[in-house]
Amino acid sequence: MFMRESKGARTVFLRVSAAAESFTFICMIIMFQDNFKMVMLLQNGSQQNSTLPTENWTSVYSAVRWIQMIMAILSILGSGSIIFYAVFQRLVRTSEVQPLFLLSLTDMLLAASWLCGALLFSTSCDSYATCYNLHTVEQTLYMASFFYTLNYVWVLYTGLKEKYRRRLNGFPAQHPAQAKPCRRLATVMSCVLPLLLTMPVFITGNVDQCYVNFTQPYKCLLLYTGALFLSSSVSEVLPACKIMSDYTITIFLITFVITLIGIVVLMFKARSLYKRCVTSLGFFGDSQWTTLRVLERRMVLYPTAFFFCWGPAIFLAAMMLFKPDEVKGWLGVILYILQAFTSASQGLLNCLVYGWTQQHFRSLSMRDANTQTPLLRSQKRSYAALHSSSSKLQNI
What parts of the sequence cross the membrane (predicted)? Predict the structure, then answer.
């Protein structure tokens, strides 16, 4: 039964992937005209003054709109496949899958908010308050995705650490009842902390109407880009709004650095711990070398995937914070377009890096079917029937 369910889930995932590829091809054809205009605009802009007004960059915003929309849809499909697989196989509450499930859920909500932003831009939404509050929600979700990514890697490390101590001492070094509250606290704080950090942005922005200053040129598109080139129609920025703008960029940079360093440190410690565990047994065979190579690949893959998603946004945010004049040129436009490709694809990339490419994740649903004989499975059904009948007698 479990094997049939697993095959069915994989079949659904393959069909969704094929549909996503077809949709991407069609949308790329639609984007060609806008991208061609954008390239011609960049070539002409390099020969003229590098501080053109905002109104001359409508082709850039239009191209970013299509890129953001396509990548957001692919991210929704990717993260949704993990969620569907975990729910379909009843793996949501397992300690191995729950961190990945929460990360995929956050990625799907973040991609949905980016899709809403692209659709609002397409419908010429003039409600600046709506776009500002949507950006605040996006800020909360991407910080939650940062923390859930770190939580996922931390759960992998702690699981390996518990196995090492159990094998070394012959019994668990930490009682399971003491380990669960720590994981639950980390899960809750990964959601609560972004809400606390973005609360000042939401309150100050709506009280002082900061959305008039920062949302006018690009409306509901990506975060932290501001207008590529502010026009004369934008009013003078209030001090409180300027502080909030710098605050959002600062916490974005800080949370990114903390998450990246945490991933690197935890993966390095996991590799060292596994090597110590194997060498303590006095045997280092082919299987152990294979596992060690897998850990080494993860040590490089996890930080690389995280940096790939948010690298352009980090460079663009740092330029806006420390050298805002450098954004007013072709470099800012390139980073802006790259951000639309990479940041909006986080859900798709995470489902591949942390989910479908991991053999352990794919084999979880078949673990029960592969380790039980037909006799054991029939006994399990008999025990379940006896338990249900006894519970009914107790109720009577």
Answer: 12-32, 66-88, 100-121, 141-160, 185-203, 247-268, 300-322, 334-357
**CA–CA dist 351, 261 (Å, integer):** 21
Question: Is residue 22 assigned to a domain?
Answer: yes
Task: State the total domains in the chain.
Answer: 1
Domain assignment present for 391: no
The answer to the question of residue 329 being in a domain is yes
Query: Would you say residue 159 lies in a domain?
Result: yes
Per-residue pLDDT of the chain (396 residues; tens, 9 = 90+): 434 444 544 454 445 455 544 544 445 444 444 444 444 444 444 444 444 444 456 777 788 888 889 999 999 999 999 999 888 888 888 877 888 999 999 999 999 998 988 888 777 666 677 888 888 899 999 999 999 999 998 988 888 777 777 766 665 544 444 457 777 888 899 999 999 999 998 888 888 777 665 545 566 777 654 544 444 445 566 788 888 888 988 999 999 999 999 999 998 888 787 777 767 666 666 666 677 777 778 888 888 989 999 998 898 888 888 887 777 677 878 888 888 889 888 889 888 888 877 655 555 555 544 444 444 445 545 545 544 444 443 443
State phi, psi for 225 to the nearest 5 degrees. Answer: -95, -25
Quote the CA–CA distance of 77 and 378 in Å, as a whole number. Answer: 37
User: Structural domain of residue 119, as residue ranges?
Assistant: 2-368
